[in-house]
Amino acid sequence: MLGFIIQRFMQAVVVMAVMSVIVFCGVYAIGNPIDIVIPPEATEEIRLNTIRRLGLDRPLYEQYFIFIGNLLQGDLGRSFVYNVPVLELIGGRLPATLELVLISVISATVIGVSLGIYAGYRPDSWLSKTIMAVSVLGFSVPSFWVGLILILTFAVNLGWMPAGGRGDTVEILGIEWSFLTADGLSHIVLPAVNLALFKLAMMIRLARAGTREIMLTDTIKFARAAGLSEATILRRHLLKLISIPIITVFGLELGSTLAFAVVTETIFSWPGVGKLIIDSISVLDRPVMVAYLILVAFLFVTINFVIDLVFALIDPRIRHGASA
Amino acid sequence: MTDPVLSVRDLRTHFFTRAGVVKAVDGVSFDLAAGEILGLVGESGSGKTVTGFSILGLIDAPGRIVEGSVMLNGTELTSLPEAQLRARRGRDISMVFQDPIATLNPMLTIGQQMRLAINAHEKLGRRAAEARAAELLTQVGIPSAEARLRSYPHEFSGGMRQRVAIAIALLHRPSVIVADEPTTALDVSIQAQILYQMRDLAAQTGTALIWISHDLAVVSSLATRLAVMYAGRIVEQGPTATLLRDPRHPYTAGLIASLPATSKPGEPLAQIPGTTPSLLSLPPGCPFAPRCARQTPACTEEPALTIEADRGWRCFHPVGQMHEEPA
């Protein structure tokens, strides 16, 4: 097990190193942030001073190594636009994204897996057919459009939910959270539904496919022959047997939604990191972009690592294979 | 013979597929006495396994028991509500499957799986359940059973896994165990061990066995009675020794003739010509007629069951009874 962890750790280091080079070069290849940072009427002297101050006069590789040097000391640079440390900027926005994404991904998984198991367990019932039809919709309707329709229906026409923003927050451990207040919760509902729809559809399909396959196996027949009740079979046998692909997709979706909830956050003016990155790109705020993308890479590496550990935890075959 | 523990009468299990109705089991009847071992023999697709599943009421859609009766200890199983049927499965009647690798859940320990099977019928504490599980594992010949409860199926060999499956089937001391080719997937050396162990266990516990197999040689060394299945029907049944020595149905005779032990060394094994008919398009009358050397126009009628002492067969022109053949 230890060897497995060390091996994965080395892989992660390599991935992060490669990722940082790609991100750094990629971001530096586009646009000139100076034109945005200083006013057009600034003198040539101010212009040159700013370039020097931001370190943009040095060659790319030098800039890269300065960046890496700072990174290793926990400094991801200062935003060109806000002139505050990037980490502070991202850290201030992260809780908003975190609560929105966790709520939507977790509820999508719980509801999706339950519906999917039902649909796989009783494939011919009309309810299952309805579930599957809805899941096709979840797949095929673009998320921005769903967001707009949700606002139009529930915020504008029915007036049940607010159309955007975070609403009231409470501070816990120095961080502002929306989901702990009634008002904040009512603000979360629509964007969370918007984010969850696609994942819900995917979880339904995954769980259904797994259930249909597993229910026909001898394992289930043998459990039935031993007199186990259907509820026990579903809970104790099936759930474990279909869990591997579901956990994989859960992890990947969690990562990609945390990183790129851009569309939903923009539509619902949710002050999360997705909105931050979009704003940063439009003003060419390089430190924010680079730091953000590197953090995202780190996030994915971490999530994948955790998923592998969870696999080893629930599937003895993987656990023993890894230690051998 | 005392009252049978299991009595199957005119059982018909049909599968309603898009291509048509597959009559996988079509009029099977037999009795099973306490402690008896019945060998159910036939080629692949003859309906042996479906018969086994039908007895336990484990037929999945599109299949269905359309007719017949399965009496277990005086209770009619086919009309029992699912909940009551479930309460009998594993307790009064259980089953062992062909492939031990596929039957055990790879993600649960042996102990967990055995506890699930115990708790399905009685609420025992963890300690008591584990003690019972360990006791059964020891009985089926698994060394250091206590420690093995914490092992996962992949840590066992195929033969050991099958022993675990057998232990699970025996947990509640059922009156009947349906063993569906439990040794087919195993090494030949392990096969014999498991075979005789199961026979001894059945004898010790008074459990009756239905031993399903395509291998007449294996079954005949084990079973007290044989039932030969062909195309969803039992074409002949009787005491093993009688059937082997003096078969009546030409199909039984063909099976016996094709056993390697009955052939002379150096000569090709005897075969039954042709193949098993598709259950979708059975010929009218005797299903074996197209492959039968003794076929006559009479065979387009369904042969009735002929009963003679403790045996029975379905054939108009039984082997060894030429003098009785109608002119």
UniProtKB/TrEMBL annotation, chain A:
GO annotations of cellular component type: plasma membrane
Membrane-protein topology: Multi-pass membrane protein
InterPro entries: BPD_transp_1_N (IPR045621), MetI-like (IPR000515), MetI-like_sf (IPR035906)
Domain ABC transmembrane type-1 stretches: 94-311
GO biological process annotation, one example: transmembrane transport
Key word Cell membrane present: yes
Keyword Membrane: yes
Signal peptide: none
Record keywords: Cell membrane, Membrane, Transmembrane, Transmembrane helix, Transport
Compartment(s) where it occurs, according to its Swiss-Prot or TrEMBL record: Cell membrane
Main localisation: membrane
Chain segments annotated as transmembrane: 12-31, 100-121, 133-157, 177-198, 244-270, 290-314
Top-level taxonomic group: Bacteria
SUPFAM superfamilies: MetI-like
Annotated family: Belongs to the binding-protein-dependent transport system permease family.
Protein name: ABC transporter permease
Origin species: Aliishimia ponticola
Automatic annotation (TrEMBL), chain B:
Compartment list: Cell inner membrane
Protein name, entry field: ABC transporter ATP-binding protein
Keyword Transmembrane tagged: no
Sorted UniProt keywords: ATP-binding, Cell membrane, Membrane, Nucleotide-binding, Transport
Membrane-topology annotation of the record: Peripheral membrane protein
Organism taxonomic ancestry: Bacteria, Pseudomonadati, Pseudomonadota, Alphaproteobacteria, Rhodobacterales
Entry annotated with the keyword DNA damage: no
Xref: InterPro entries: AAA+_ATPase, ABC_Ni/Peptide_Import, ABC_transporter-like_ATP-bd, ABC_transporter-like_CS, Oligopep_ABC_C, P-loop_NTPase
A GO CC term assigned to this protein in UniProt: plasma membrane
CDD domains registered for this protein in UniProt: ABC_NikE_OppD_transporters
Pfam families: ABC_tran, oligo_HPY
Family of this protein: Belongs to the ABC transporter superfamily.
GO terms of molecular function: ATP binding; ATP hydrolysis activity
